[in-house]
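A quick aside before the break. I want you to see a complete sequence-to-structure record at least once, exactly as it would be stored in a machine-readable document. Don't worry about memorizing anything.
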Amino acid sequence: MKENWTTLDTDLLVVGGGVAGSMAAIPALEAGLKVTICEKGKVLDHCGSIGCGVDHYLTVMDTGPEWDTPEFLIKHVPELTDGIVDMAVASRVIREMPRIFRKIESFGVDFKDPKIGTYYRLRSFGLPGTYHINFDGTDFKKHIGERVRKGKATVLMRTMVVQLLTEDNRAYGALAFNFRTGEWFAIRAKAVVLAAGDVNRISRNASGLAFDSWHLPYNTGDAQAMGYHSGAALANMESVEATLTPKGFSCQGLNALVSLGAYFVNKSGERFMFKYDKKGENARRAVIADAAINEYLLGNGPIYLDCRHLPEAMLDHMEATLQVDRYTLPAYYEQKGVKFREELVEISVSELSIRRSGVYFRGSGLAVDTNGETSVEALFAAGDCATVSGGISGAAVLGHIAGEGVVQRVRATSGALPEIDIKAAEMVRAQSAGYLDRRDGMTWKQLEDETRQTVTDYVGVRRSEKGLKLALDTLQALAKREAHLKADDLHGVMRIHESRNIRLNAELMATASLARKETRTGSSHLRLDYPQTDDRNWRKFVIVERGKDGPAVRTLSTDRPLADAFARNAATV
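That is the input. The structure line, written in tokens, reads:
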């Protein structure tokens, strides 16, 4: 680990080079701002949740029918989110969808199906229209990455941001290190965008392999943890998400299955989804996952995927798109001798992630306003680390909104940036170096395993006050052992920072879950001791912030935007 610091000054620092981060960089670059991106991955064109491809994109297109307008979809958002949603931000994201969709097309992304010469649009996940475009998005991220590189952004790959720099509730940069070279960066910026994704590797899964997660396993709550430490408000952290995956192989692709007409059946061959929702397999992801969990608890497992009724043309299309998200899936099926065209395929429930609770337009993470700015001035957030999320399109749109918000913030800000306290920065570097010097102690794998076991046993998809308190006691005890973590190499140091972020996010999740004394959106937050949804008392945001002695909780009515809870807004002080 190098002892000297590399110092950089920039207009915008972006943490995370996925879709949200790259889309935030683009309007800033177009406005002539200097942009620096820190990304843990190896190649900008193939990093982030869909670095290897995506098979669907959700958007309103304004093609003429009433259902294909922003206002129609906005009208249905409260129902889609069970009333827990920031309508101000969600409405702006939806209204911007057509514009950002056309802009992404201008980058070279081809959303059209070559066989029909137009968009292959399908209905799924409880949405009131055929908003999902099914397409071959193998090169989706590549085109966005190329746009960023053409704008001449400074891109620091294999570089993890470990601490934000703030002064008087204003962000002005961050500290980061390259876990291949050991180089440390002290970066000053007029604005920072956090776009490091959701929180994965936080509970056990069917395969027992932590990195075999249906969502990107390298998204470990870095943005949420750094935002929390900086004093930013987080919301909806109690809401978790799971999905259905092939047994023994975690992958995305549920959207393609349900939108193309696949069925789910239990061990008796019963197509059970209509027992749980009138839309059947086209229900929200949260309902689909909860239904499968309930069938297992009722003794009706295993659960199977049934595609045998579908026409050959549909099966061909399904096979082509399923391998876009996870290109090794066909090889897995071949090696297992599974033929989904001819037989039932066993499926399982994935691990949990702190993401968006199985619904669109309600995210779990940093609370943002209509410009994507958090409660800390000049600190923005977008994608699955923010409180309004909508899959890839949500990341793209809110990312672009945040980038435009940065341009406004930078142009409205005058004066020099604060000087970096090198002594304080050196303490951060020295702590990381200490992980390498330590010979005895806990490894990052041990910390993560104990965190995952705690979440699985005591938080999970069926919660109670007793279990949540046990989780908090265990997680807080684990926090005291973090001082004794050890690493064998620089990569291990990066993993230690990830594991600490995972543990902290688990604590924030348990804290928020204990506070919300009701059940909301099925297994996204199901309290056995409060099994009913209580709109009268709990149609509220649960907000978690850094308190004097750890996470502190307060609530805000969903009749108000989350920005009303920001201390930096003079009208609410």
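Two observations worth writing down. Residues 490-515 form the longest helix (26 residues). Residues 293 and 349 are 7 Å apart (CA to CA). We'll return to this after the break.
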